Amino acid sequence: MSFDTAANLVTGYGAMSALFLHLGLERPSAVDRTVKRTEKVLIWGVSSSFGFFAAQIAAIAGYGVVGVASGRGAELAKDAGIPYFIDRTMDSLVDDITALGPFKAVLAAADTAEDQVKLGAALAKLGGGHFLSTMGVRAGVILPEGVTGDFMQFLDDYLEPANKDFTAWVWWDFFERIFAQDAVKSVPLEVMGGLSKLPEAWDMLQYGKVGGKRLIVSPDLD
Ligand SMILES: NC(=O)c1ccc[n+]([C@@H]2O[C@H](COP(=O)([O-])OP(=O)(O)OC[C@H]3O[C@@H](n4cnc5c(N)ncnc54)[C@H](OP(=O)(O)O)[C@@H]3O)[C@@H](O)[C@H]2O)c1
Fold first, then answer.
1. CA 105, CA 114: separation in Å to the nearest integer?
2. Model confidence, pTM
């Protein structure tokens, strides 16, 4: 694969520890990818690099994946074979999530305080639950009774000696095999240009103009 694609896909380490160390999913096999499970996994922010990778890995592990993103992420999710998609901008969001539950695990890969309130409401309607957020529960968010959310620093998992077997499995077994098989897609990559493009790239990110793709600034292009 290209260097750019590889540089994007390796950030999947975060999704791996989120799903298999913290959310308790069964590890997938890179050899037999036909396993199917009855449980569902909710990935909020499925069009983010983190969420897109997590959704594909949860699917390889056999779970029914429900992806949430703004409507422009629907095609991306479909292309990656993610079976259920919910548009987070719809008024029916909380009911849409509830209708597809319950969930074995909930990962908020990209979310806001407002999203967490909605996610909390949906989980409360399902009888309570837990979600792991890549940025943690936002300041000021009060979750309903029976709903909890937390944060983990995923890189630290790979520096923890007690996780030695997990680290070896991720990097030297699972990743080696699925990348060789081309079994996981990267979000589309857009090369902006050299360092002079940084301000423009930052502005695009800040104003929410980047959806379902990764911007690349390559210093040697100026
Ligand atoms: N805890 C850790 O150790 C750790 C490690 C790595 C990354 N992270 C964090 O993980 C997050 C995701 O990283 P990334 O590299 O995947 O980011 P990214 O690809 O730049 O995420 C941008 C995408 O998120 C979607 N998005 C934005 N706001 C959203 C919302 N409120 N709900 C759902 N989707 C939303 C956007 O799509 P649409 O607007 O089209 O839906 C856009 O496609 C970042 O906040 C990063 O800091 C944490």
1. 20
2. 0.94
